[in-house]
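Bump. Still looking for Probable butyrate kinase structure tokens.
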Amino acid sequence: MKVLVINPGSTSTKVALYEEEKEIVKTEIVHDIEALKRYKSIIEQFDLRLNAINDWIERNNINLKEISAIVVRGGLIKPVQSGTYFVNDIMLEDLRRGVGGEHASNLGGLIGRAIGDKHNIPVYTLDPVAVDEMEDVARISGLPELPRKSQSHALNIKACVHRYAMENSVKEEELNLVVAHMGGGISVAAIKEGKIVDVNNANQMGPFSPERTGSLPSMKVVDLCYSGKYSFDEMKKKIVGMGGMIAHLGTNDAREVERRIQNGDKKAKLVFEAMAYQIAKEIGRMAAVLKGDVKSIILTGGLAYSKRLIEIIIDMTSFIAPITLYPGGDEMEALRDGALRVLRNIEKPKIYS
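Sorry for the wait, here they are.
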């Protein structure tokens, strides 16, 4: 069985072909930034990205008649349960409309269906950012107008749950875990009986990250918004994109920060340790959601490669549960595995409605 994987990002589109678990070819198609700027909306980039993928398919002599399934990164759709979904017409319409907001991943389903419909290939997506399994009590904030919403790095979080269950010969629905995805944004999730019952929204809450502020002193945020120094768009950029480590140190590259620490930079050391400190605090919060019944704490994402960061988190949280390290987190492989579970009849695809 061959699976074609499509994963659109802000300035590039990752594409890969697998035969079962074996990688045949994988490429990151980098799009011209000036060309992208000419489009008013992300959806308008559809033709540019589809043509680039079709060119890649032709250059690599990929026979689409041999493809068993296409699987795409999930876009910002309405809240859904975890799982693998058919990319149906209702989902396509919601992606076009941007019901959950604008993001490059919204193009995944549209491009996948354009190729799939032409060659009679089923198209799937799984565990998008919009996965919502939160318990009602977790949704309440201090203002009724601002309920907490479930948005997370669900694709990698769920992939870690699948992997842990398989490696430890246990059913997912029997697992209580805390999973911390640590990348450009940080999502720390409480997994109760296999479901994400609580998670910080990585764009608005939780620990600060290499490029996001996480939770902030709310009254001071109000003061900043009305200070006259920043526009609406500038404030949003400060919180997501130019916040966190990049705001303090001018870089979102954790490796660069660690090099500065090695060279005796005390400010870099303090900020880096503060980020680890906040991640550990969030893990403790999620352990409380599970009443301390935690099988393991899983640390994943690109930051999980940092020995310095991991040591701080382990020192603060290992009293809760054993630590499991799954550094990195390949979205392409996670997408592939979701399609293979359906093709092998391990999992039934869900219908989006």
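The longest strand covers residues 22-30.

Edit: fixed formatting.
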